[in-house]
Write a structure and sequence with these properties.
Length: 324
């Protein structure tokens, strides 16, 4: 069966009706966008002679993704997150907001409301004995090289099994998640454990889609950051640890050359004592440069559904400090 009906007036009129073009209510933007997406999908069905069986199996995959709140997991694998980054990079370049540390994707595993520490603290609860001690530190500066004191550095990462607290119920609350306020010299320093790489759940609908593309669902060991300070552009980024087999083969397309950072093993007794650690450790240094901006919207992370974020908003409103 190789019929082609997409360009017929019947189908074109049908699309206009589906998109509500003949209706008063609703949103014009939603109508335009739905009309485009549905037209592209109808045309795909026509061009590839997609069968009813194929169509309904796709609906099943979408239902399974939704049931497991997995579209946020598949989204980076299909490149949407990186594509949005490329668009924001292009907008920054056009507006000459350049010179800062590059952004890269947030991923789906942030949880709002992590404990806040001043300058330094500990991120792990001490229970992950397979995790090698990590001393993660750096300085936040502006594009002129001035330290940014009081910057908010939110950090989150996986444990030695690639699991994130909250999503992995075996971990304690906010394990490996902290908000660090930089000291008077713009510095932050935390004790944690070296994260392991992350793999999509093997029996998940996300992996099922990747399998159809002949792709793996692995990410290199990585550490997520949100960095913000008044007068500066909010930065969403992450570092990928050097030497991981997936450092340059990340299914989520988050790796950027400037964000590949080595973990340096240190076993000198003096250095161990200076950091009040109990044995050899790996040091990871990530300095961050924030671009300046007066635009309030650029100083905050963009809105998206995030774990516990609404509760945080409500709590902060009760405290009389509603976020803009
Ligand atoms: C995914 C997981 C991550 O830890 C991450 O940083 C990005 C994406 C994912 O499962 O899609
Ligand atoms: Fe991650």
């Amino acid at each position: 069966m190789t019929v082609k009906i997409f360009d017929t007036p019947e189908v074109q009129n049908f699309l206009n009706t589906i998109a509500g073009f003949d209706q008063e209510g609703g949103s014009d933007r939603a109508k335009q966008i739905l009309h485009r997406i549905l037209s592209d999908l109808f045309r795909t069905i026509d061009d590839y002679d997609i069968t009813p069986e194929e169509y309904w199996s796709a609906v099943s995959v979408l239902n399974a993704l939704g049931q497991g709140t997995q579209f946020g997991l598949l989204s980076p694998g299909l490149g949407f997150d990186h594509f949005l980054d490329m668009r924001m990079d292009a907008a920054d370049a056009e507006a000459k907001r350049t010179g800062g540390t590059p952004r890269t994707i947030e991923g789906p595993l942030y949880v709002a409301g992590a404990p806040e520490v001043q300058g330094t603290g500990r991120m792990d609860d001490g229970s992950d004995t397979d995790g090698e001690t990590m001393w993660l530190n750096g300085q936040v500066r502006d594009t002129q090289g001035n330290p940014v004191a009081g910057a908010k550095v939110e950090v989150w990462h996986a444990n030695s099994k690639g699991g994130y607290s909250f999503f992995d119920p075996t971990q304690s609350e906010y394990n490996l998640r902290r908000t660090i306020i930089t000291d008077s010299d713009g510095r932050y320093a935390v004790r944690s454990i070296i994260p392991s790489g992350y793999g999509c759940p093997p029996d998940s609908p996300t992996q099922e889609v990747l399998n159809l593309l002949g792709r793996h669902g692995e990410r290199p060991a990585h550490i997520h950051y949100f960095i913000s300070a008044p007068g500066h552009q909010h930065l969403t980024t992450q570092i990928n640890l050097a030497g991981d087999p997936y450092t340059f083969d990340d299914f989520a397309f988050a790796t950027r050359e400037e964000l590949v950072i080595p973990a340096n093993r240190i076993d000198d007794a003096g250095e161990i004592a200076r950091r009040e650690l109990d044995g050899p450790f790996s040091e990871v240094v990530f300095d961050i440069v924030l671009a300046k901006t007066d635009e309030a919207a650029l100083q905050n992370r963009h809105a998206r559904p995030r774990a516990k974020e609404r509760e945080q908003d409500q709590a902060s409103q009760l405290a009389g400090t509603a976020r803009v």
